[in-house]
Amino acid sequence: MVAMSAGETTGRLAAVGDHNRYQREYYEYTDKRTLRPTGAPYIQRHVDRLIGAARLAPGHAILEVGCGRGKYTMPLLDRGFRLTALDLSPELLQHLRAAAVGRHLDLVLADAADADQHLSDRFDRVIGFFMLHHVHDLDLVFRGIARVLKPGGTIAFLEPVARNPLYYLQIAASPHMTWKAERGLINMRSSVVHQAMRRQRFVDCRTESFGLFPPMITNTSIGRYVEDVLQDRRATRLAHAFQIFSATLPA
Fold it and tell me: Is residue 52 part of a domain?
């Protein structure tokens, strides 16, 4: 690794600060109705897939990074998982705190890259839903995560499939989305994400893809049936909308 000068370090820190500030504003002040907690089948399918990929068990200590308003946190709590939820935004954490009243949930205000500076515990699993493509630097984030993960622990992140053109059309057509906030989507490729994981000593890096339809279809019983029939066929795998990146920290 090439050492950076003081000026380069200061510039990089400033860039990270600007990036994080923009991402907070993007989610705090833009009307993101789809980020609110929900029990819809579309969301439950995402949760099911990540539980399987990460091999989550109720006894695990789990850290969810980029939890936001708790769109996925709440379904995990409903299933009995023990969670610590981390996010950059105090406003979004406040919404999650209100939604989770009466539940055992620890909330942490921090950048995932600095997780070890805010957490004294180590975790069996670290997970995230649609957050990797919003981070400023994959290497820094995986380094921070590795520092709070127990040896032998697993990480798993659900993300959009970068090659799927529908995401780019959605970004272009939606008044609530910006390319500046979503451009990390182009890095959501196994070649990029796995290399960043391996540079932080993660092993057994895997990618599994799934899903074909938007919520309006998946939330219907017929839509779910058709998706189940089609999504594992070789001819439709290139049309998958979602993927889960996972890896393990050596014991």
Answer: yes
